[in-house]
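Protein Record: Sequence and Backbone Structure Tokens
======================================================

Structure line: whole-number tokens from a learned vocabulary of local backbone shapes, matched to residues.

Purpose: to set a sequence beside its fold so the mapping can be learned.

___
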Amino acid sequence: MASGEAQHVKSFERLKANTVSFPPPHIWAKTLAEDVGCALTEDQARQLGAALEAAYVYDQALVQLMKGGYNAEKNRNDWIDSQQLFYLCDPRVHLITDDSKIRDRCKTSDQSERVILVSELPGLLGVKI
């Protein structure tokens, strides 16, 4: 986990310093796969990029936040939040969280409708409180 957080901070610091630009989804996905020792074809990278849409959009949102002073080092736990969004590649999976920032940051993704806030559960289950 520590190495993942460190890589997250390093990547976003390079983006902040403008030494790299935020890549399109298939390049982003290919880089993720390479980081764990997997080589993907272009077709596989496109499929993975599409499957991880919410995580990609979340990372894009962090890049936008950097323009307003976002500090990746002080927000290392954002890497963990983005990793949770990987589960949404399975259309049967929903993420239940009490952290509205996760959904807010991936709201332009079609997968964001499967990020459910704990406060919304009673209504979704038809339970009156």
Helices lie at 2-16, 25-35, 42-51, 53-66, 77-84, 100-105, 121-125. The chain has one domain: 2-125. The mean pLDDT is 88. Strands lie at 95-97, 115-117.
